[in-house]
Specification:
- The complex is a heterodimer of chains A (about 475) and B (about 450).
- Chain A contains 17 helices and twelve strands.
- With about 475 residues, chain A is of the alpha+beta class.
- In chain A, the strands form two sheets. Chain A has a six-stranded mixed sheet, with helices on both faces.
- In chain A, helix 4 runs parallel beside helix 9, helix 11 runs antiparallel to helix 12 and helix 13 runs antiparallel to helix 15.
- The longest helix of chain A is centred in the middle third of the chain and has 18 residues.
- The termini of chain A are far apart.
- Chain B has two domains: about 210 residues, Metalloenzyme, LuxS/M16 peptidase-like (Cytochrome Bc1 Complex, Chain A, domain 1); about 190 residues, Metalloenzyme, LuxS/M16 peptidase-like (Cytochrome Bc1 Complex, Chain A, domain 1, 2-Layer Sandwich), CATH 3.30.830.
- Chain B is an alpha+beta fold and about 450 residues long.
- In chain B, a hairpin with a 4-residue loop joins strand 4 and strand 5.
- In chain B, the strands form two sheets. In chain B, strands 1-2-6-3-5-4 form a six-stranded mixed sheet, sandwiched between helices. A five-stranded mixed sheet of chain B has the order 7-11-8-10-9, with helices on both faces.
- Chain B starts with a helix and ends in a 12-residue tail after the last strand.
- Helix content of chain B is about 45%, strand content about 15%.
- Chain B is built from 17 helices and eleven strands.
- Classes of the chains: A alpha+beta (about 475), B alpha+beta (about 450).
Amino acid sequence: MKAVILFTAAMALAHAQTIDRTKPPETPPLSPFKLPAVKESKLANGLTVLMVEDKRIPLVTLRLVFNGGDRFDPPAQPGLAETVASLLKEGTATRSSRQLAEELADIGASLDAGAGADSMNISGNTLSEHLAKLLAMAADVARNASFPQEEIDLRKGNRVQELAMQRSQSATLANEKLSKLVFGKHPYAQTLPTPAAISSIQRKDLLAYRDKVLVPGNATLVLVGAIPSEAQTLAMIKQSFDSWAAKPVPALPGGDIPAPAKSITLIDRAGSAQADIQIGRHTVNRLHPDYMPLVVATTILGGGASSRLFVNIREKQGYAYDASAHQMAYKDTAIVSVSTQVRDEVLEPALKAVIAELEKMGKEPVTPQELSNMKNYLNGIFVMGLTSQGGVASQLAGMKVNGLPFSFLEQYVTRIRSVEPDQIQRVAAKYFSPSNLTVVVVGDGNKIGPALGKFGKVTGEKAQ
Amino acid sequence: MKRILLPLLLSLPLMAADVQIPFEKYKLANGLRVILSRDSATPVVTVYVLYGVGARSEEKGRSGFAHLFEHMMFQGSANAPKGVHFQSVEANGGNLNGSTHPDYTDYFEVLPSNKLAVALWLESDRMRSLAITKENLDNQKEAVKQERRLSFDNQPYATAIVDIFPTLAFKNWSNSHSIIGSFDDLNAATVDDVSKFFKTYYAPNNAVLAIVGDFQVPATKKLIEQYFADIASQPQPKHPDMTEPEQTAPRRQSYKDALAKVPVLCIAYPGPKRRSPDFYALNMLDVVLTAGESSRLYLNLVKGKKSLLGYESNLGWPFASNTDYMHPGIYGFNLTYNPSFSSKQILEQFQQELTSLETTPVSEKELNRARATMRATRIRSLQSTMTRAQLLAQYELFDGNPEMLNTELDAYLAVTPQQIQAAAKKFLVAKRQSVLEVQPAPAEAKPAKPAL
């Protein structure tokens, strides 16, 4: 046994005769990324179908994605899309809510629906043997949701309570305000509906949304997993989706996004144990040449535990448990934001330190080591995100929703790797400049108001 | 028993046995238990280190110490100074974390598979030579206090659930104290405490190393030997006495939560011994009662009576899984309800559901549905190398039998309606019920305008 171990080890790790534990081990570079083969087709009614075979485990993951989502909410009725999504499983022309739940549970399958800023998503998962059944049920809820009045009333009543719960979290309040200020009249401004808007929703509104948005030409069906042959799978799909009548594809609503400008807003939340800070602005969408340099710049600034914000604000200064920066991409644009939660008495030095980190990104080039580390990190995280069926299915659906080719995924790693320090400095100077950033702080106004006032004019409002 | 399973076998041809996770286990001379499970399907590897120490190993006056210590594990070691741990993993395209539970603490790295050696280097270096300094300790005390403010003090329900609920459900301090700890106790922790805790609990003989993913077994064994074999073992640590006094009367408490907007009831019953027949029966009962939109609580209370807005439950709640508490544990519920109902009405409705489980056996149809849910959930979770590593290591540490990853599902699926009924009668009894009622408190009077 020992001999065998030594023999193989000698082949695999010729350098590891004795180990020098004072240095990190030498390892080969990351392997190149290859997207699994995607088979794409289109039904006569316009439904796009994507299939990826993955036989590792006897499961299939399903996504049925519609373009638009919350964007189709009428301005006076934010929350319509999420209400549609939450009621899709609550009854169809032929199945009651209870029947749907029991039929799914009988085969151990899951089927859920949710609305996002740019899409409405029906997602499901089943053991491969029940794929035909899951397809039939996904088609039933997408095509024939009937929105029973009793279910609408229950959902609306419960949602108003849920909203109260969500707005009891300071991070929710901060995020809601930041989105409003950054996106102005664009539908992306709306993150949570108001209770009044939810109460105003009628059954006819839900049916109208269904008939306009949930149409085959506006949808992509993705299957990833242990599926039968392409022909057999397509036949199974057609059984449930071929008779779905084609309809015009609705145009996506949009709106003007205001030019970024500096502002400071304090949401006074009595009894807050600390201050929740979110700082941001809109940037560019995935098609823009600044997008990839921004991804890398944002990660160096505040992505992960070796980022500048984490190391300085948390590890070095101990101001906060977490400090991070994100770039969240939408179809039309993206929002870059920094968030941290600090104790009241260090609000001033912490905010100063965050601003200094933002400015530094635009003033000095990042070091080659830092850049190479962060590229590896982004590379690894991206590849790992594609190791599960759900990860592959969501990414593929996302490409369709955002109007991007699959080569965007295939080339992602290469494009990340080609970003240079001067590009990072340039995009950071442009997009991280504190003179154009919106600052939102949620906390106890009595405790943090004076310190916040030192950063400029503060607009105050009470937490709801 | 097997006979009852037969119809299920026919309707659901993929039994647990169809997803067999191969593995091998062995022990280093210093007592470190190693489990290797190779899966070359994805170019990813998970390195998972599980230590047999958790919040229930803490001493009075040191609540929160196990978690504070977990933070210290990221503060550097002899050859990987402060910051290097995070940086080495992330710069190699991976992610990492650690978490503290009542009876264990775990650390993991998920990396592209050809970076496996990096994780072994880091994990062995901190197991051997953690940098225990006053500077690191002071810094992490602040980080933990910030974590407490962020994740507990500033969140609705968190204080009630983390600090108060355990004191109602448990009476032995080892079980009932707050896992995040009090500021006073955190402040009182010394460098000596950290050194002692490290030496006692973070020894190779109190740990399990599980590696799951795409790697070469012989080469990996050699690396493990080189990195870990000469870390000194220590006397096996003793567990504190966690015995709970028998509960003979119901316990009730209310809490006013200034951050909450909607009322919540937290309910606990003393749980069964881990891996006993009652344990499996109560887990299946929980699926019938609470899992998904075909469950009884959902259909009867969320839908039928429209009284619950939502709920959570499981053996081990408020922790996420039924593996969080060894013994003694609890079967816990969290019921968020519509404020137009009283807490008394909610408790009555909840009790009706329990009474029905006690008086009438679950139908075979309903139980088959629960079995299908249990089975699919299990198979789904096995997609992830992280879940496989975690389960293999936990089965080894707590049961000495990682093969349970492949066999335990059968124990859940074999539960009968009669066993569920018997478990309901035995465990869900009124005199052993603890209820914490969390009511939203009106915000304190404050000046109308923020002082800017």
